[in-house]
Amino acid sequence: MYVDGFVIAVPTAGREAFIDHARLVDAIFMEAGAIRIVEAWGDDVPAGKVTDFRRAVAATADETVAFAWIEWPDKATRDAAMARLSADPRMTGAAPPFDGKRMIFGGFEPVLVLGS
């Protein structure tokens, strides 16, 4: 398994636009080989003393932090998918309803997985 993780600040008033965008883009990721995608809307995102999710993405008072991940069967599948998706017109034409410059993202190799 391989996991891509994302943290973004989304205009709170744009929650439905975020969900609509996720439905569109996530379907394309699934076509490309993703095995599971979770999109989560911030509900209990406390302020930290040193750092926190809100500060990490420079969220403003009118934004909510969203957290998402994509599970892939392996890194090779993910890498091949990302190469294809970067040229897919459905992806390049799908403008996100958030500031992508403040998105934090990365790929991760799981070291422990519990549950299904």
> How many domains in all?
1
Summarize the helix and strand pattern as letters: EHEHEHHE
Specify the number of helices: 4
Radius of gyration, in Å, reads 15 Å
CATH C-level class is Alpha Beta
**Range of helix content:** 25-40%
For the record, the CATH architecture stands as: 2-Layer Sandwich
Give the integer mean of the pLDDT values: 95
Read across the widest sheet, the strand sequence of neighbours is 2-3-1-4
Topology (elements, then pairings):
Elements: E1 2-11, H1 15-31, E2 36-41, H2 53-56, E3 63-72, H3 75-85, H4 89-92, E4 104-108
Antiparallel strand pairs: 1-3, 1-4, 2-3
Question: What labels describe this entry?
Answer:
alpha+beta, 4 helices, 27% strand, 116 residues, Alpha-Beta Plaits, 4-stranded antiparallel sheet, 4 strands
Question: Overview of this structure, please?
Answer:
The protein starts with a strand and ends in an 8-residue tail after the last strand. The protein is α+β, with helices and mostly antiparallel strands and 116 residues long. A 4-stranded antiparallel sheet has the order 2-3-1-4. The chain has a single domain (2-108), classed as Alpha-Beta Plaits, CATH 3.30.70.100. The protein has helices at residues 15-31, 53-56, 75-85, 89-92; strands spanning 2-11, 36-41, 63-72, 104-108.
